[in-house]
Amino acid sequence: MSFVYRDRPRQIFDLRHGNLHVTGTTSVTGQSTLAGTVKVGSGYQNTGLTLTNAGAICADSNVAITGTVAVTSTSTFTGKTTHTAGITINAGFGNSGGMEITSGGAISMDDNLVVGGTASVVGVTTLNGQSKHIAGLITGAGYQNTGATLTQTGALSLDNNLHVVGTASVTDATTLDKAVKLAGGYGASGVTVTDAGVVSINSNLIVDGTAAIAGASTLTGETLHTNGAKFGTGYASTGVTITSTGDLSASRNLEIDGTGVVTGLVTLVENVKVGGGYQSAGLTLTKQGAISMDNNLVVAGTAKVTGITSLLDELQVGGGYQANGGSGITVTNAGAVSMNGAMLIKGTTTLTGQSQHVGGLITGDGYGNTGMTLTNQGELSMDNNLRVQQTLHVIGASTLVSDVKINGGFGNTGLTLSASSGSIYMDDILQVNGATSLNGKTHLNGHVDLGNEKTDDITIFGDVVASSASNPDIIFTGTSGTCTFACGR
After folding, report:
1. How many whole angstroms separate alpha carbon 180 and alpha carbon 44?
2. From 392's CA, which of 152, 304, 439, 464 has a CA 20 to 30 Å away?
């Protein structure tokens, strides 16, 4: 090693073959070339400094540099380094691949920050790019110590609120131990899910898939199920199914506290009970069609009954019969029918008991209009024939203004009473058990028998005149009895 002193510029010391010991201060103003290792003090690890011939600087104490240090290779600092003006790496932050640490402690870098140990940041941290924490991330004192913990497996635990301004996407199961509020919560145009599992919503609930609700649900507003709804396991499996077309099928009872309005056809395959059912202050409609009820049946429209109807008590129609000025009908449980208006019967009526018509009886349009009239005084007038299968009893006088035919009339093995002449025509014998008075001329055509026994007296009060036109024979030869004539002939 050679040295050139300032005050002796032409005097050169060559120490290539020995040591140079300087006990005072040595000032070198020019370039020094030291081929071997340089030790200051006792060298590194002996409270000194060593500068190796490979360019490595090792010091046991501080290295103070007032200017710029340019390090082109890797630097290893095993102790503390102080950079009062900051540190610039490469071309510095903002020059593609650099970094700066300012004297105020701010770190700015163009690439990733890798921290192998714990990074403690006491102030606000702004991370404009991606931040990677391989072992996880702890803020504050960590979870359960008024902080937050983000584990290396992605679990986030925090002791305070989680505010997400953008979209939060959770692809796995989420466990929320307390109430959850969305958009301000229920009551503020949002949603609240309590820790007891109650969901409260200010607007519509839209579920594209299946919604399974194990407990009771209270829906105070309208619910829309575009594909239908199933309750329990659905109809045919101890549940209820409502199809998208509006069909409701239930495996158990349907209970409606309010009014049930059904505008279409209703098919009920089993018995129907209203109230507690019949005999329990209600009504029962059986699947065979029988209706049993404990109170009145009120029908505002038309009631059509095609089968037998049994009414055990009195029946009133239109307010029932009223003796003085009513307008209804009453049928008593004894079978009596009383009505204030006319009874019109289109078909055949069979009355097996007594029929009483206080105001009379009219059939058809009444007498004089191709009908019949029976007055309340008992007078019968009709526009057609009177046919009597049994005996006809007429107590008073009978006036028959037209011919009277019995059993088809005369000429048909019957009898005819002529209204025009008063004649009686008959096809068989006239039998009279009592006395008969014939006041007019009597014509007896054909054979005539007078009496049928010998004891039958025949008394002639008038003259017996024989017709000169037919010259009849009077023959008594057929008798062996006495023939007595007290006349002069």
Report:
1. 64
2. 439
